[in-house]
Design goal:
The protein is α+β, with helices and mostly antiparallel strands. It is 52% helix and 20% strand. The protein has 15 helices and twelve strands. It has helices at residues 2-21, 23-39, 44-59, 63-82, 85-90, 110-115, 125-128, 132-142, 185-220, 227-259, 271-281, 283-288, 308-325, 375-380, 387-397; strands at residues 96-100, 105-108, 148-155, 161-169, 176-183, 268-270, 292-297, 303-305, 331-341, 344-353, 401-407, 411-419. A five-stranded antiparallel β-sheet has the order 2-1-5-4-3, sandwiched between helices. A five-stranded mixed β-sheet has the order 7-9-10-12-11. A two-stranded antiparallel sheet has the order 6-8. Helix 2 (23-39) packs antiparallel against helix 3, helix 9 packs antiparallel against helix 10 (227-259) and helix 11 (271-281) crosses helix 13 (308-325). The two termini are 67 Å apart. The relative contact order is 0.06. It holds the Pfam family HisKA. It comes from Mesorhizobium cantuariense. Keywords: ATP-binding, Kinase, Membrane, Nucleotide-binding, Phosphoprotein, Transferase, Transmembrane, Transmembrane helix, Two-component regulatory system.
């Protein structure tokens, strides 16, 4: 019943719309009929019939409306026909190549020229892409065995790139085909990083676990009744469990940082107070390593937008590394200075040690997870290999940056540049 009412309302609206569009023609017809009736002696029935015919004609759809309705698809078709294959190919961000039944290039978009320099219309695809998987892809599509197919392909030069390549025919009976190259390099790089991270984390946890398992076996066997050996082994086991706990804490810190959006922190941090707190907390470690910590702060307020706990962790990691690995220098200098380099006004916090320094080839990779300049020294100092990676993630969140300067035999300087706005 509701559907019937809806249809009736729609029909009434259509009739009213048509009458309104034909109102002037209808008025003119009525005036003409009445004028003829007044001037000529014609029957009233003839006048009524003429008026009804005028009303019926007014309710019919106009030629303009029919033409507009019928021409919509035609106009759309004409617009699509005006779009040449070159325009469509240029609109695709991925490398795209159109070729014919002889595997000869007909057209390639700008992305294809950038990715595979040296291609041109008229060139043979079989000669350009000689890899077996590409040859099999072309043969399968051109033979008609498959309408479309996908393969993985690696381009070696000028740099190695991994692609997911799809091939398919264009339209029907056009004798044209298209290759689209979807770049998978970044996805595969992330997959490799994830696999390496899991392998490194597993190795770092397996080493202390193996050590603890060995000592437990010894304590249950040969050292069962040897108090001196038992105390020594228990001390080592405690040290190894502490190492695993530190590693797990750092892994959790990294996980939390990666889950946070890169939004500017909404609070202000007093760098003078934060750095002083870090120095005080690491005082026992500095004394244990016979390192004197010196301070060199600029005058005036030293406030920056940031998260105090996260920045505390940054300076704690950097100062702890300086005390551990630069202890041979005997001192560490912590300086805070204002930076007015161009438009990037900010504050620089630099932690400098005078130890053995870092060889230049290691500096670009030193913030990678589990990367160590000296594996044995790092493990002796109870390092997890994640401290500088955590520093990098925190500074990224604060729109800050870390710079490292070092000279072998003269120490290393880690500078944190924090923007003031």
């Amino acid at each position: 019943m509701a559907d019937l009412d809806t249809e009736q309302k729609g029909a009434a609206q259509t009739i009213a719309f048509r009458l309104w569009n034909s109102r002037w023609l209808l008025i003119a017809g009525i005036v003409a009929v009445l004028a003829v009736y007044a001037l000529a002696a014609i029957s009233a029935y003839v006048v009524l019939a003429a008026l009804l015919l005028l009303l019926a004609a007014a309710m019919l759809p106009t030629a303009g409306a029919r033409q507009s309705t019928e021409s919509g698809p035609a106009i759309e078709a004409i617009g699509l026909q005006r779009l040449s294959g070159e325009y469509l190919a240029a609109a695709v961000a991925d490398p795209l190549i159109i070729f014919d039944r002889t595997a000869t290039i007909v057209h390639a978009n700008a992305a294809a020229f950038a990715a595979f320099g040296g291609i041109a219309p008229g060139m043979s695809l079989s000669l350009k892409f000689r890899a077996p998987e590409m040859q099999a892809l072309l043969d399968g599509v051109l033979s008609g065995d498959v309408a479309s197919d996908v393969v993985d392909y690696t381009e070696k030069l000028p740099v190695e790139r991994a692609y997911r390549v799809s091939a398919s025919s264009v339209g029907h009976a056009t004798d044209l085909y298209v290759l689209v190259f979807k770049d998978q390099s970044e996805t595969r790089r992330i997959d490799r990083m994830r696999a390496d991270f899991i392998a490194n984390a597993s190795h770092e946890l397996r080493t202390p676990l193996a050590s603890i398992a060995g000592f437990i076996e010894t304590l249950r066997g040969p050292a069962r009744n040897d108090p001196a050996a038992r105390d020594q082994f228990l001390q080592i086991m405690q040290s190894q469990t502490g190492r695993m706990a530190r590693l797990i804490d750092d892994l959790l810190s990294l996980s939390r940082l990666e889950m946070k959006p890169y939004l500017k922190p909404g609070t202000e941090v007093d760098l003078r107070e934060a750095v002083d707190s870090v120095i005080d907390s690491l005082g026992p470690l500095a004394r244990e390593n016979s390192v004197a910590i010196e301070r060199d702060y600029a005058d005036g307020p030293l406030d920056v937008p940031g998260d105090r706990d996260e920045l505390f962790q940054v300076f704690e990691n950097l100062l702890e590394n300086a005390c551990k690995y630069g202890q041979s220098g005997g001192r560490v200098v912590v300086s805070i200075a204002r930076s007015d380099a161009g438009s990037e006004q900010g504050i620089d916090v630099t932690i400098r040690d005078f130890g053995p320094g870092i060889p230049e080839e290691h500096i670009p990779r030193i913030t990678e997870r589990f990367y160590r300049v000296d594996v044995e020294t790092s493990r002796t100092q109870k390092g997890t290999g994640l401290g500088l990676s955590i520093v990098k993630h925190i500074l990224t969140r604060h729109n800050a940056r870390l710079s490292i300067k070092s000279e072998v035999g003269k120490g290393a300087a880690f500078s944190v540049h924090l923007p003031t706005h």
